[in-house]
Design goal:
301 residues; Nucleotidyltransferase, domain 5; 2 domains; 9 helices; 22% strand
């Protein structure tokens, strides 16, 4: 039995896990952003509620990238932990083992072990949330790579600049990673909203755009067509390179079955392997996948 946390820039989700399929959620609290002592105190408060034994492991899924060679985390969303050897610092303060993984990596690990990727040796988990993220799992192990950046397919300056027929020119937007023209700038929920406003002049949220497309609205359909031309080619390239047998999709946009089915068709039409079986599929896990992935990372089977 271990305590699992899924820590983002707005909140900390806490649970106690007996196995990846036996996870009891303890609750949610606000993430302290600017005070490391408050951050530690918040986790200590969770431990006080957890029935896991004293000295048992804490497993954490977190926004940000952990360098596997140094243990240093890069996390712009939570300034008080940015640049720290977070696992070591927390272990010292809390006097128990702490393991930490990137939330997208642990989403992929969860889906590979207990969700849509079960039975596949190579799983590439995709996050289509506010932005674009991903994680690679091979033979049940997360592949983090030098610096911890493996799987970050949303951050390269390769976003299409001309889409649709007749062609429409798109500007190259600055990305939070410091580059210009990344898939992340047009490929997540905020990217879809940006595209729709570019085409129509209307500010609508991604949920409304997807719902309008599903209902047959032409303007929303045009935005979705452009979205597919931006997202599907780089994702198909990733599938070709890593040889993924399953590509589960999570995040807010992943909740639309119709959108993911369309993305699956677009990706399969662009990869070298010819298959009629679905490849890009909705994530299956009902429990927060970050918590499930943290449980697996923590050694539970």
């Amino acid at each position: 039995m271990i305590t699992c946390l899924d820590i983002g820039g707005s909140g900390i989700k806490a649970a106690v896990a007996r196995s990846p399929s036996q996870i009891d959620v303890l609750g949610r609290l606000r993430t302290p952003l600017d005070d490391f002592e408050a951050f530690v105190a918040a986790i200590r408060g969770v431990l006080a509620l957890s029935p896991a034994p004293d000295g048992s492991t804490i497993a954490i899924a977190i926004t940000g990238v952990i360098d596997p060679s140094t243990g240093i985390i890069k996390c712009a969303n939570i300034p008080c932990i940015d640049g720290r050897r977070l696992a070591a610092d927390l272990s010292e303060r809390l006097q128990r083992p702490v393991v930490i993984g990137n939330d997208a990596d642990l989403f992929a690990l969860a889906e590979a072990g207990a969700g849509a990727g079960q039975g596949h040796a190579i799983v590439f988990g995709v996050i289509l949330g506010t932005g674009v993220g991903g994680g690679l799992v091979i033979d049940g192990k997360v592949v983090s790579g030098p610096g911890g950046y493996a799987g970050e397919w949303g951050h390269a300056p390769v976003a299409a600049t001309r889409v649709l027929e007749p062609p429409v020119e798109l500007p190259r937007f600055a990305c939070g990673c410091g580059q210009v023209g990344c898939v992340d700038t047009l490929g997540g929920a905020r990217g879809l909203e940006r595209l729709h406003k570019h085409f129509t002049g209307q500010a609508r949220n991604s949920v409304e755009i997807v719902a309008a497309w599903e209902a047959g609205e032409a303007a929303a359909g045009r935005s979705i067509d452009a979205f597919m031309e931006i997202v599907a080619p780089p994702l198909a390239l990733v599938v070709n390179v890593v040889g993924a047998g399953s590509v589960p999709v999570g995040g807010g946009l992943g909740k639309s079955q119709a959108l993911i089915a369309r993305l699956d068709r677009e990706v399969r039409s662009r990869i070298l392997r010819r298959t009629f079986a679905p490849l890009v599929v909705p994530a299956q896990l009902d429990v927060e996948p970050g918590l499930v992935g943290a449980a697996i990372l923590g050694g539970l089977t």
